[in-house]
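Colleagues,

For the teaching module next term, I've prepared a clean inverse folding example: a structure given as tokens, and then the sequence designed for it. I'd like students to try predicting residues themselves before seeing the answer, so please don't circulate the second half yet.
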């Protein structure tokens, strides 16, 4: 069990990368605002002025010398 401490700072706003077609570097012409429009239905945060959020930013506030491991 990890003996480290975390402090949740702020919700993380969704970046625009999911709207970009990675092959062309531009939004798809048939649906230039997807998936943002769809996510906006259920991921908009009143606390962030209506921005889409996907997680929270946190900082380690305790546990000096502790090693975090996957699994």
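(Answer key — instructors only)
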């Amino acid at each position: 069990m990890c003996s480290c401490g975390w402090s949740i700072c702020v919700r993380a706003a969704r970046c625009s990368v999911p709207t970009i077609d990675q092959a062309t570097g531009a939004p798809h012409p048939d649906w230039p605002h997807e998936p943002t429009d769809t996510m906006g239905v259920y991921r908009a945060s009143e606390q962030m002025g209506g921005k889409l959020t996907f997680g929270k930013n946190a900082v380690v506030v305790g546990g000096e010398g502790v090693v975090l491991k996957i699994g």
